[in-house]
């Protein structure tokens, strides 16, 4: 995993060492910590996290607290609902219906039905079941370094989980165009051709095409955002072959890209199913599958699906509060403006430091790719890792992404402001300047 703690605790404070020891004694080894010096956080507010000594860290990475850590409006609504009622959806509760009406009004009209789950992984798992049942086929196409979740079915379409995570025999992986190294004007054609080849391969395997699932910002594939619309021909190919398009909006959704509520609309897509995840409740467990009548109808009639506390009143209260904050604080426009400022600042840093080969992104989902040199464009994961850790030491939390783990991924809570963007840019410039001086000495 990119940026994982390597277990070397020689430079850590005794209190941190002891906490890591206790953690390792009770938590399974599948858990990972970030950074060469893990951060021990005790509270968070807005775009800041605080450690036990009171030092604050700017959160430039966590998309789950979409409207900011410990948001008072979310806390208030959750507390009010917790004091009244929290139960399952087999009872008739008005807030569930009202929120569903409100949420669906943010989607194109053909996306008219919702099923609630507790996690994005469950939602992905359900979307795959729906697609396979409706089409009668089994084959799934996903991108070659995707992450879609941790259930058995979701892990089978999540190659970014590593080489020891098996990809399902009914799954075909396709490489995404590289907007840094490939001709961006050919991205749509290149990707559609790869998807058509994958569809043919599924036919040869005798499983057919049920669906293609794509994270609309290609986050784990290194954040491949441009040009807008490049996914559309691939989606057309999927529909022509009788498959469904599943838009994974767990990361780009709820206004993060600054171009509207959902990442798929930026590409002009008409998905059959849309997967939503943890940001919809600011971290309170709620997720969903939104779909067309045609996609949802037969599965819903024929198969009993019940997620015990998916869409419970407390989680619905959190989700409603998130929509309140996004709308009242104009956070979609904020994502657009602050994201543009952040990208502009990073591009200026890249002009001074050629180890940043490419800056890209949309809204508050921004990437800076590190390379050994701007001519050969060989990925430089070591520099990316060093920068992530140096920024952590300067009080900025961030991480890396991409197949080569060389892409700085900046994905902060939506209330991120201009001064926060400028702080990230200035600190990155200082880190790279210090690194250059150290190398020259």
TrEMBL record:
<protein>
    <submittedName>
        <fullName>Aspartate aminotransferase family protein</fullName>
    </submittedName>
</protein>
<dbReference type="GO" id="GO:0008483">
    <property type="term" value="F:transaminase activity"/>
</dbReference>
<keyword id="KW-0032">Aminotransferase</keyword>
<comment type="similarity">
    <text>Belongs to the class-III pyridoxal-phosphate-dependent aminotransferase family.</text>
</comment>
<keyword id="KW-0808">Transferase</keyword>
<dbReference type="InterPro" id="IPR005814">
    <property type="entry name" value="Aminotrans_3"/>
</dbReference>
<dbReference type="InterPro" id="IPR015421">
    <property type="entry name" value="PyrdxlP-dep_Trfase_major"/>
</dbReference>
<dbReference type="InterPro" id="IPR049704">
    <property type="entry name" value="Aminotrans_3_PPA_site"/>
</dbReference>
<dbReference type="Pfam" id="PF00202">
    <property type="entry name" value="Aminotran_3"/>
</dbReference>
<keyword id="KW-0663">Pyridoxal phosphate</keyword>
<dbReference type="InterPro" id="IPR015422">
    <property type="entry name" value="PyrdxlP-dep_Trfase_small"/>
</dbReference>
<dbReference type="InterPro" id="IPR015424">
    <property type="entry name" value="PyrdxlP-dep_Trfase"/>
</dbReference>
